[in-house]
Design brief:
Blueprint lengths: L1 E4 L4 E4 L5 E3 L15 E4 L3 E4 L4 E4 L13 H8 L9 E3 L5 H4 L3 E4 L4 E4 L5 E5 H10 L6 H9 L3 E4 L2 E4 L3 E5 L8 E7 L2 E5 L7 H4 L11 H18 L2 E3 L8 E3 L2
Parallel strand pairs: 6-7, 7-10, 10-11, 15-16
Antiparallel strand pairs: 1-5, 2-3, 2-4, 5-6, 8-9, 12-13, 13-14, 14-15, 16-17
Length: about 250
């Protein structure tokens, strides 16, 4: 399997849930608002023998040329966005789902960013996102999920095409889900915002921004131990220094 991080940059986030670009080479950590956190926004592509898989879709920002940032990153790695076959969504917070749809400003609506892909979304997470709304969720952006023809609504746990396992985890958001991709003796694990950074895997860290911080912490410990035993490759969506690492 080929793993490609699609970094959209580093951001400082405070209580308003605004994502403020942060240059780690130039900006000062001490100038950020009190209580803010510093994160990378980093979807991933995993290329297997069967699929081109996108794991979460980033913020949905556009670059200076007006192109959807995640589309440009794919093109920079010689991947046509039309060739993405599966989009696996851990949850629907705006920093993970913003790139799922592409806004048509003339017509005033969103259309699917990866029209040839099947999107795999937690059914309960989708309902919860519209119930909860802002600031964590952007209902106008998420309408695209209601319009998709190629969408699989998931619940609980199961298997996709015989080699991708999904499982409800429910730590970061109530209906968060995680994924394992297994092929040719390799296991790639994507824990979304419940396994967001390497250092969190190695400590008993309880995050205030998690819906169930204790559960998320316990899951991290469980996954890290199992991953070390079986040699999983962990993908870290919010890690500034370590996009992915093979445990064990």
């Amino acid at each position: 399997m080929n793993i490609i991080p699609l970094s959209e940059g580093s951001f400082s986030i405070d209580g308003t849930k605004r994502f403020v670009p942060f240059d780690t080479d130039r900006d000062s950590l001490t100038n950020r608002p009190a209580g803010s956190i510093l994160v990378e926004i980093q979807p991933f592509v995993v290329v297997t023998s069967k699929d081109i898989i996108l794991l979460d879709t980033g913020l949905g920002f556009h670059n200076a040329d007006g192109n959807l940032q995640i589309h440009q990153h794919l093109l920079d790695h010689d991947i046509n966005p039309l060739d993405v076959t599966k989009v696996l969504m851990s949850h629907l917070h705006k920093d993970h789902a913003g790139g799922a749809g592409l806004e048509n400003k003339l017509l005033g609506h969103y259309h699917v960013s990866f029209p040839n892909a099947t999107y795999y979304v937690s059914e309960k997470e989708l309902a919860y996102a519209f119930e909860k709304g802002r600031p964590s969720f952007q209902p106008e952006e998420l309408e695209v999920f209601r319009q998709m023809e190629k969408i699989q609504l998931l619940d609980g746990q199961g298997m996709i095409d015989g080699y991708i396992t999904y499982q409800w985890s429910g730590g970061h958001s109530p209906f968060h889900q995680v994924f394992w991709i297994r092929e040719d003796g390799e296991t790639v694990f994507f824990g979304g915002d419940e396994a967001p950074q390497l250092h969190q895997m190695k400590s008993r860290f309880v995050a205030k921004y998690d819906a169930d911080g204790k559960r998320a912490m316990e899951l991290r410990q469980e996954w890290w131990a199992k991953g070390q035993e079986e040699g999983w490759t962990f993908l870290f969506y919010h890690d500034i220094r370590t996009p992915f690492v093979k445990a064990g």
